[in-house]
Amino acid sequence: MSSQTQVLVEEKSSVRILTLNRPKQLNALCFDMISRLLQLFLAYEEDPSVKLVILKGQGRAFCAGTALGGDVLPVVRDIKLGKWRLGADIFTDGYKLDYVVATNSKPQVSILNGIVMGRGAGCSIHGRFRVATEKTMPASYFFSRLPGFFGEYVGLTGARLDGAEMLACGLATHLILFLQ
After folding, report:
1. Is residue 2, in this structure, part of any structural domain at all?
2. For 93-119, what is each residue's pLDDT tens digit?
3. Which residues sit opposite 20 in a β-bridge?
4. What confidence tens digit (pLDDT) does each residue in 111-166 have?
5. What distance in Å separates the CA atoms of residue 112 and residue 162, rounded to the nearest whole number?
């Protein structure tokens, strides 16, 4: 699967909608996806016709982190072949993506529907708007940075946050409830 099909791009007037499209892997970001997102965000920063970027996931996850978590075997194989740099590059470019998202002048809206872990939190938490739903399930490094001892409580108890709790503690900026 190419990065073009793993990150779908939809253009609607001045809005760009980026959809992470690896639903069987819970949209875990592989190196090609991270590179593609980085390329797109940099291009949108320079394009005056782009006014808003929306990032969302296909299926039951926004993004379950970096593909290293689920696709360890290819990385181990590369290391054994002396290509350790490939494993390091996924982290380097991932942190570059975080920086570009955090400093981008174009507003980004991340629709955090479903599972949000690791790199998924990284590429969304630095954006301007994070929209949680009643199906949002976060797990992240960012818990330890929450006010008070809320993050420690979640980490120690394994408690799950819902969309309203994410909004209350600052992990989300907005909440959408889908009424049945």
Report:
1. no
2. 889 999 999 999 999 999 999 888 888
3. 7, 57
4. 999 888 888 888 898 999 999 988 887 766 677 777 778 778 877 787 778 888 88
5. 11
What string of H, E and C letters represents the secondary structure of the chain?
CCHHHHEEEEEECCEEEEEECCHHHCCCECHHHHHHHHHHHHHHHHCCCCCEEEEEECCCEEECCEHHHHCHHHHHHHHHCCCHHHHHHHHHHHHHHHHHHHHCCCCEEEEECCEEECHHHHHHHCCCEEEEECCCEEECHHHHHCCCCHHHHHHHHCCCCCHHHHHHHCCCCEEECCCC
Query: Domain range for residue 153?
Result: 7-176
* 128 belongs to a structural domain: yes
Beta bridge partners of 129: 109
Residue 1 lies in a domain: no
Query: Is the pLDDT confidence value at 68 over 70?
Result: no
In a domain, 46, yes or no: yes
Determine the longest span between alpha carbons in the chain, in angstroms. Answer: 54
What's the whole-model pTM score? 0.81
Residue 133 maps to which CATH number? 3.90.226.10
As for how many domains the chain has, the answer is 1
